[in-house]
Amino acid sequence: MRPSMMIQAKADRYKAMQEGMSTKEIPLKWLYGNETDDPLRFGFDSKRVVHPTIKSPLIDSKDIQARWQQVMQTEGYSASKVAYIHIPFCLSHCYYCGFFQNFIDRQLEDAFIDCLIDELTQAGASRFIESGAFDAVYIGGCTPSALKTANLRRLLEAINNYLPMADNCEFTMEASLQTFSEETLKTCKEGRINRISFGVQSFDTSVRRLMGRAIEGKDALARLNSLASKVKDSDLLVIIDLIYGLPLQDRGIWERDVETYIASNIDSADFYQLNVFSDSRLKDLNDSGVMPSPATVGEQALMFARTVDLMDRSAQSRLSITHWARNPKERNLYNSLSKGGAVIVPFGPGAGGRIGGSTIFLKKDIGEYIEDIKSGVKPLMFMTESVGDFTLYYTAIGQLDKGFLDLKPLEGQYQQHCYFIYELVKKWQERGFVQHSEGMISLTIAGQFWHVNLTQSLIDWLQTRIKE
Questions:
Q1: Is residue 163 domain-shared with residue 293, that is, in the same domain?
Q2: Domain total for the chain?
Q3: β-pair partners for 141
Q4: 401 shares a domain with 310
Q5: pLDDT at residue 158 above 90?
Q6: How far apart are CA 147 and CA 113, in angstroms?
């Protein structure tokens, strides 16, 4: 799942988790997995979470502004620093998406960009922002490329003016082929963007039409190949997302999607499992019988295994469980740093961040966001207390996202924690999710498919055992 969707999923479900099941009430099979001869397809009953989340108490709403200001007055942290900037507008509402916020409204867009620039300006004057350069900046959404060119230009100028960026900063913008033009490309280049991520989802026209995509598959491929060829001698990279498990997308269609990417000029790709969200149009259409059913989790598991097989044969670099690159310039830096515990400074309605183990989410309602910015305050929805031992947790999250967990370097500082982790790893090894040798834990193909469940299980297990 791309960063913008992960952030929205986490925000919408974080508060519910605080009020929900305690870790002591979690069934053991949620932690260990099922005992089965086929852990790839049946290792768990279902995907437990979209994105691993660490449970931590919420700060009282009356105190969060003071806490935020306290953070912004510090000199910063030694951890890497990234920024996430959320654009809450889309040209259309894709059926599979559970995070739609607003259709494009040009008058509202102008007011929003004014406020987003004000938010960047206010942050840029703080000691926290001034004290260290950003290693990655990510503009996500909804659809950032749907902005008017003038507004995109204003936004990029503000980012460059108020967020100090490292010389090799990875600067990404999410885009839609339907809203990406030559003028957009020119503006991106002038604004120092060096990575554009397109949500393609599938190259199959029947699947695309069913999901509400306007551009035929062959035209989407032609546009992407043309763009990749046009920028191949520059620093700009073209990235795509493909989703497996969509309605009408059987294993044959998915295999052609992967092979189409392999044969293309596109620099890099993410291969994501379809999540059917309870509040998505896809769920409603499927329940009413209008839309064919998506693939079962077991079918998705076979699609994932075939993806790994095809991509390994392609000799492209695997940067995470879901991400491959043919271009050696691709680093997947924002994803890697954010999952590994970097500071994430959020901007824009619905954006999420993290500073020093404290999780932050901004108000999603654009009207409330604009009102707060005009009042000179950060539009905070909620903020959590800092997670104890957050470095250990995010080391585990970041490494498991890459298919391994190396406990040896952690044993000195976290001896008791590592003992608890080894208890859990023993159960995972019995069920076929991992291989373990001298502190190095490697995920099997089944473990890779279920890695989000395993990561959440590790977090829940540690938070339970440490309290005992």
A1: yes
A2: 2
A3: 87
A4: no
A5: yes
A6: 9
Please check whether residues 209 and 308 belong to one and the same domain. yes
Report how far residue 391's alpha carbon sits from residue 464's, in angstroms, rounded to the nearest whole number.
Answer: 18
Sign of CA dihedral 159, 161, 163, 169: positive
Q: Greatest CA separation found in the chain?
A: 60
As given in the structure block, the two tokens for residue 93 are 């509402």
CA distance 249 to 252: 8
Strand, coil or helix: 396: helix
Q: For residue 243, how many other CB atoms are within 10 A of its CB? A: 24
- How far apart (Å, rounded) are the C-alpha atoms in residues 201 and 53? 25
Q: Residue 198 corresponds to which tokens in the numbers above?
A: 């397109």
Measure the CA–CA gap between 7 and 1, rounded to whole angstroms: 10
Tell me what pLDDT residue 103 has.
Answer: 73
Mark whether 66 and 40 lie in a shared domain: no
Asked if the structure places residue 378 within a domain, the reply is: no
Q: What percent of the chain has pLDDT over 70?
A: 93
- Which tens digit of pLDDT belongs to each residue from 12-50? 545 554 444 455 578 899 999 999 999 999 999 999 988
Residues 399 and 298 in one domain: no
Can you point out the beta strands (E) in 69-155? 81-87, 89-90, 102-103, 134-141
The DSSP bridge pattern shows strands 268-273 and 317-318 to be: unpaired
DSSP-based three-state secondary structure for 441: strand
User: Which tokens belong to 86?
Assistant: 């959320």
Q: Contact at 8 Å (CB) between 161 and 128? A: no
- Is the pTM higher than 0.70? The answer reads yes
How deeply is 24 buried, as exposed, middle or buried, from its count of CB atoms within 10 A (0-12, 13-18, 19+)? exposed
Beta-bridge mates of residue 317: 325
Pairing of strands 343-347, 81-87: parallel
What are the start-end ranges of the E strands in 278-433? 317-318, 323-325, 343-347, 352-355, 358-362, 380-383, 404-406
Q: Please, is 405 exposed, middle or buried when counting C-beta atoms within 10 Å of its C-beta (0-12, 13-18, 19+)?
A: buried
- Same-domain pairing of 237 and 99: yes
Element housing 428 (H / E) = helix 415-430
Average pLDDT of span 326-348? 97
At what angle are helices 106-124 and 366-374 packed, to 10 degrees?
A: 50
Residues 418 and 440 in one domain: yes
CA distances from 392 to 35, 246, 360, 397, 402 (A): 28, 35, 19, 9, 16
